[in-house]
Amino acid sequence: MSRQMEYDCIVIGAGVQGSFTAYQLAKKKKATLLLEQFLLPHTRGSSHGQTRIIRKAYEEDFYTHMMEECYQLWAQLEREAGVKLYRQTGLLVMGPENSQDYQMMKNTLQRNQVPTVILKRDEFSSHIPNVILSDGDAAFVDTTAGVLYADRALRTVQGQFQKLGGVIKDGQKVTDIKPGPVVTVSTSGGVYRAKSVVITAGPWANRLLSHTGLQLPLQVVRINVCYWKEKQPGLYNVKRRFPCFLHTGSKEARDHIYGLPSNEYPGLIKICYHNGSETDPDKRDRQTDRSDIDILRRYITHCFPGLEPEPAVVESCLYTLTPDRHFVLDCHPTHSNIVIGAGFSGHGFKFGPLIGKLLCELSQGEVPSYDLSPFRIRRFQAKMKSAL
Questions:
Q1: What does the pLDDT read at residue 119?
Q2: Which of 222, 270, 332, 379 is catalytic?
Q3: Which residue among 30, 44, 48, 222 is the active-site one?
Q4: Which CATH class is domain 91-143+219-321?
Q5: What confidence tens digit (pLDDT) does each residue in 118-172 have?
Q6: What would the pLDDT profile of 281-332 be if each residue is shown by its tens digit?
Q7: What gap in Å lies between CA 345 and CA 264, rounded to an integer?
Q8: What is the DSSP string of 76-117?
Q9: What is the pLDDT of residue 238?
Q10: 270 is known as an active-site residue
Q11: How many CB atoms lie within 10 A of CB 112?
Q12: Confidence (pLDDT) at 383
């Protein structure tokens, strides 16, 4: 293949969003190149790890609406590839009964007729054993929710992309992007040209956008992904029908705390704090702040008496946050054939199949399937600065 071969589209970044974008383009018979700076698979970005929560429980109607199609697209990929990617567990949502976050999430589900079970205080412990509901807290279950097998999903969609004739080149770091009617992308391994480019580079988005004269108000934070040991094996596993959970605001924490039943490590349950410390994505291993672990330790002591209050395993992940925690799905303000998917703010994985479809539509100049006004770059006008 020529080093200068021209593609219909180049997608930069082979995480979940980029991989689904490339897959959607290949389904439309577009000659597509998927570039990744690291050798695949890798654990340096935001899409690795065995599990993610999938849910319709959101404060905003637009996310709940989008999730309806996401479930269908995940099921379609399962059928196409003959691989199991989703397990229904339900999502237990807890939070101060009178708080805005809790009430908005509950109201959104009810308004959109998502199957929901409201748990009364006096019935809580019979439905959810080994969890203590704090005073003033209420709880409900989004019964449609569950676990996505993240690593498996990523491998599956990349495999389907290649079966459709798509090309993946990993270990190729992008060194330059030259906008124009045909965009030129230079990497450590070659020079490639395409009619359109989609940038889904996660924590490295602004570094790539700097070549195009754009900087977005993105903040990269390192999350400690913590696994906690059961005092008695099996207390919080799927066989006991233990659900995923989300605590919208506890005495111990300002931000959400979330958890998934044991899967990656037998006898260990994943519980994380939904925020972290700012970091440089290339220097993340120097980031040693453990204040989130202190918060989780206090939380687990108070709410999860069946767990050892010291993490057994600590891994890491990166979030790329926007100021409003909503995604960026838009065309470059100056170069309409450069499309940007960024700022997934720690809750984007479950949307992967639909985000891939939307970024594909944008890259082809089509009218997007959804109203993208919550995700447009113009909402940051006051915070944006030119990179030139």
A1: 97
A2: 270
A3: 48
A4: alpha beta
A5: 999 999 999 999 999 999 999 999 999 999 999 999 999 999 999 999 999 999 9
A6: 877 677 677 889 999 999 999 999 999 999 999 999 999 999 999 999 999 9
A7: 23
A8: HHHHHHT---EEE--EEEEEETT-HHHHHHHHHHHHTT--EE
A9: 63
A10: yes
A11: 15
A12: 64
Q: What is the three-class DSSP state of 120? A: coil
Question: Nearest to residue 102, comparing CAs of 111, 94, 113?
Answer: 94
The 8 Å CB, 24+ separation contacts for 365-371 are: 365/336, 368/329, 370/62, 370/65, 370/66, 371/62
The CA distances from residue 118 to 70, 103, 115, 123, 227, in Å, are: 24, 12, 10, 10, 28
Q: Is 52 a catalytic residue?
A: yes
Would residue 347 show up in a list of annotated catalytic residues for this protein?
no
Catalytic option among 211, 284, 335, 350: 350
Q: What angle do CA 193, 199, 204 make, to 5 degrees?
A: 120
Structure tokens of 106?
């509950």
Which pLDDT score is estimated for 283? 76
Give the number of other CB atoms < 10 A from CB of residue 326: 18
Q: What are the CB-based long-range contacts (under 8 Å, 24+) for 376-379?
A: 376/329, 376/330, 377/216, 377/328, 377/330, 377/333, 377/340, 378/333, 379/324
Q: Scan for tokens 């997934």, then name that residue.
A: 344
Cis ω for the linkage preceding 115 (within 30 of 0): no
Q: What share of the chain is helix, strand, coil (3-state, %, to 5)?
A: 30, 30, 40
Buried residues in 19-46 as b, exposed as e (16+ CB within 10 A): bbbbbbbbbeebbbbbbbbeeeeeebbb
Q: What is the pLDDT of residue 387?
A: 41
**332: annotated active-site residue:** no
pLDDT of residue 1: 38
Q: Choosing from 44, 52, 195, 326, which is the catalytic residue?
A: 52
Residue 369: what residue type?
A: S
- Which residue type sits at 149? Y
Contact yes or no for 283/131 (Cβ under 8 A): no
Q: Which residues of the chain have pLDDT under 70?
A: 1-4, 238-240, 250-253, 284, 287, 383-388
Q: Where are the domains of the chain?
A: 6-47+151-217+323-379, 91-143+219-321
- Catalytic entry in 21, 32, 51, 320: 51
The CATH code of domain 6-47+151-217+323-379 reads: 3.50.50.60
> What's residue 124's pLDDT?
95
Q: Is 350 part of the annotated catalytic residue set?
A: yes
